[in-house]
Amino acid sequence: MTPKKIPLPTTTELEILEVLWRDGKATVRDIYEELERRRPMGYTSILKLLQIMHGKGLVARDESSRTHVYRAAVVQRDTQERLVDDLMSRAFGGSAAELVMRALDTKPASEAERQQIRALLDRLEKQR
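Above: the chain sequence. Below: its structure as tokens.
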């Protein structure tokens, strides 16, 4: 039997996952307080989103106590790779070069980021 393919997270689901990736686990209240600092969101909206995300397989829920504790059920790097692949396919005709050039054109990289990019390109060149 093939495992169910987990859908890509929406923008708000990704915000919730970022909190969980950073903190490891959190209650609805913890997530609500974090996201409320960024923009107004209702507690019940966060709760409903977490329930939906649990159904999608994006988060896991510990129900052993009265207060449910959530953790990410997807790996951050894997999720980022899937999101980049999706964006590259839909908006850039599958071209990694177009994606990277547009990204750097939109928001120029710092010197440290340029050094990381050069190191990555050098490593990729050596692997070929």
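The chain has two domains: 11-72, 76-127.
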